[in-house]
Request: fold
Amino acid sequence: MVPPAITGTGSEIFRAGEAVQIKGLYRVIHYAHRLPHETAILALKKFPHCNQCGDRVRFELVRSVGELLKDYNFQPDETGPPANGDLLTD
Ligand SMILES: [Zn+2]
Reply:
């Protein structure tokens, strides 16, 4: 399996239970019970299952944390400890 490229083009689709390799903003696509919505996945190690559609939920990368920081010239928040010390990896 080819590892997903960190391009932030929004073309990467992930499933519940897969390892989160790119922290960032994701579009959550449910199975038949809810319209797509967006959520930030920053601290989770795996994509969560939905309590209604279970592992049929899909996660599409909208924008990686690195991109968000670049876009807005945000500086990393050094007042709080990162979850695993790897929040901002190049
Ligand atoms: Zn769902």
